[in-house]
Every structure is written in C-alpha cells, then in structure tokens.
Amino acid sequence: MSKPKNRAEELLDELIKGKTAEELIGQEGLLKQLTKSLVERAMQGEMTHHLGYEKHASSGNNSGNSRNGKSSKKLKGDFGTIDLEIPRDRNGSFEPQIIQKGQSRFTGFDDKIISMYSRGMTTREISEHLKEIYQVEVSADLISQVTDSVMTTVIEWQNRPLDKVYPILIMDALIVKVRDGNHVQNKAFYLALGINLQGTKEILGIWVEKTEGAKFWLQILTDLKNRGV
What we know:
- By secondary structure, the chain is α+β, with helices and mostly antiparallel strands.
- It has two domains: 30-54 and 63-158, no CATH class; 162-226, no CATH class.
- Helices cover 39% and strands 25% of the residues.
- The strands form two sheets. Strands 2-1-3 form a three-stranded mixed β-sheet. A three-stranded antiparallel β-sheet has the order 4-5-6.
C-alpha cells in the first residue's frame, strides 16, 4: 500500500504536470487573499477621497459625514468566491467605484493583482494598473488617493517577516503587460513560493526583473534572507 502524499508532494506533482505558479497560487486561495486585501484597501482610499479626510483625522470632526462600519459582499473571481468588506459612510452617500453596485464578478485581473505586489514596480506603474482595473471613468485625484492607500498595503506585504526554514522553494515567472504612459511593455515578474514545515504554501515575494543573470537571483535571495529565511 502506497504512503499517502503530503501537501508539499502534491504541489510538486502539480508543477510536474505543467501548472504555472499563477495557477497554483490561484487554486490554493493565495491569489484570492491578495485580491481581497488590495481591493478592500482601494475602497478605503475611495472612502478617504469621498469624505475628504483620513480615518481618525481631526479634520473630520463636525464635517457632516463619517465612516460607519462595513457591509459584506461576495464576488466571483477567477479562482472562487471573494468575500469583501465594503466601507460605509453615515450619510449613505458612498458608492465604491472599483466594485460597482450590482457587480457580481471580478475577473481578468489576476496578472495585474500579482504585479502590483511586486518589489520593483513604481508608483506610476501601480497607478496605471489601477486605472485599467477601474471599469468606469474616475478622476485623477481619486486614482492618486487609491494608489497611496494601495501602496501602504503593498509595502507592508513586501516587507513582512518570513519563517526561518522553508524545505521547498519554488520559483516561476509570469509575463505581464505594464503600461507606462502611452507605452505598453512586457515585464517578467518572478514569484517565490515557499512550502513551510507544516506543508502550507506561501507567496514569499514577487519581483520585477530589472537586472539579468546571477545578480538578479542574488537580489532575490538576499531579500529573502533579510526577511528571516
């Protein structure tokens, strides 16, 4: 009788079958987590733009409107259902734009979500990605506010501490079209997927390639080491 495979062995089998890192992180729910975090942060940025002041800022006192908790919404994504928390305002006048009223699906943006979490993406490139994700015309001021909010989440994620040991490390690349002004170019995004001692898979980091060869790989390994691996 054959020995049951652990989760790490199952994931390796999936790679051998030719599945990409993007497919793996989608099926494991990791891409769904990244999407949820980014979209919720974007809506928080929209709320700040709508009210005209940051959360807990004294400038909001006696402004006539304020944050008032959250409501829940389910969206169908490419890799399953996403449970979102939608911010509300006391006057009931806030309607998020990144997720429209009545919208039930959020698909086709997986590569952009992945690339926005990548170390090496500029603020301008992230802003351009957000413009493409918004499916309605929005103001430059709104995009700027949302970009600032999203950047906070991205930087926290990029710099979070990691475990000391990952028995298995998987590296893969994803090609994404990135807009810079009027130009669109393909960029390679490298994903480091780690399987920890409990057999749980994590996205350790995502990087945009800016150099070639050994220097680039050394940069990735140094980053992982600096974060505790």
